[in-house]
């Protein structure tokens, strides 16, 4: 469905998958690490078109403010063509160096990790399909295990990079500091979810290895 986002004089079309309600089960979305469609996830989508950080957004739908970041969109009866009024302070992404660093990590390192997570999942699914011989499967599972370890290490390095970002710039307003702090918190949670996804894949890999060796 398409929602109309109104932010001041600007209007943007925001696409939400028609099957978003089926994604209410977070486990079903683990491969893309996106999780269920909640108010918080909606805010992150709104950020992409408005340059307004989730922490500073106030979204109004049919005259009511959307409250509770963990509330599912399916419970809010949002329909195709609905209008969302967005109030708040835009992020000064072009001038705030800290925010630019965080966005750089998001678009570079974290985006790459998401792609790798998807590729690892697809590879494991292929092995689970049973097209290879037991010997070929074991060899491939061992190689996959090494790639999973490297993936975990990359996630840990991403967390260290985020932790090293200085949020206390003397020329940064308190409002912008809060925005930067919320942005980093979101990115950290994102990477932590990738690590949980890694653990789930590793468990499946070990289980498959055990099954094929018996």
TrEMBL record:
Q: Which residues form a coiled coil?
A: 184-211
Q: InterPro entries in the record, alphabetically?
A: BAG_dom_sf, BAG_domain, Ubiquitin-like_dom, Ubiquitin-like_domsf
Q: Where is the Ubiquitin-like domain?
A: 38-93
Alphabetically list the UniProt keywords.
Answer: Coiled coil
- Taking every annotated instance into account, which residue ranges of this chain make up the domain BAG? 113-202
One example of the protein's molecular function in GO is: protein-folding chaperone binding
Q: What is this protein called?
A: BAG family molecular chaperone regulator 1
Species for this entry: Plectus sambesii
């Amino acid at each position: 469905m398409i929602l109309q986002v109104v932010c001041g004089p600007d209007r943007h079309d925001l696409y939400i998958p028609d099957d978003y309600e089926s994604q209410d089960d977070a486990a079903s979305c683990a491969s893309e690490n996106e999780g269920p469609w909640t108010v918080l996830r909606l805010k992150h989508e709104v950020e992409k078109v408005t340059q307004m950080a989730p922490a500073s957004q106030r979204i109004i739908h049919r005259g009511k403010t959307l409250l509770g970041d963990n509330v599912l969109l399916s419970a809010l009866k949002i329909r195709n063509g609905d209008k969302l009024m967005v109030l708040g302070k835009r992020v000064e992404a072009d001038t705030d160096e800290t925010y630019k660093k965080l966005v750089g990590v998001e678009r570079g390192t974290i985006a790459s990790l998401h792609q790798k997570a998807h590729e690892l999942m697809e590879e494991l699914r292929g092995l689970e399909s049973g097209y290879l011989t037991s010997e070929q499967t074991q060899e491939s599972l061992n190689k996959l295990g090494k790639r999973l370890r490297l993936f975990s290490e990359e996630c840990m390095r991403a967390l260290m990079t985020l932790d090293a970002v200085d949020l206390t710039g003397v020329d940064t307003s308190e409002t912008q500091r809060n925005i930067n702090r919320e942005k980093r918190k979101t990115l950290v949670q994102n990477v932590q979810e990738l690590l949980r996804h890694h653990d789930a894949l590793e468990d499946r890999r070990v289980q498959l290895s055990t099954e094929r060796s018996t």
